[in-house]
Amino acid sequence: MDVDKVAERRGAKGPRKRSDTSGVGAPRVNMMRDFNETNATEAVLERQSGCKDPRIRQIAAAVITHLHAIVREVEPTMDEWMAAIEFLTRTGQMCDDTRQEFILLSDTLGVSMLVDAINNRKPSGATESTVLGPFHIAGAPRREMGDNISEDQKGEPVYVSGLVREQEGKPIGGASLDVWQTSSDGFYDIQDDRQPEMNLRGQFTTGADGCFFFRTIKPSSYPIPSDGTVGQMLRALGRHPMRPAHIHFIVSARGFEPVTTHVFVEGDEYLDSDAVFGVKQSLIIPFVRRDNAREAERVGVANPFYTAQYDFTLVRARRARAINQGEREVAE
Ligand code: BEZ
Ligand code: FE
Question: For residue 27, what pLDDT is reported?
Answer without folding.
Answer: 63
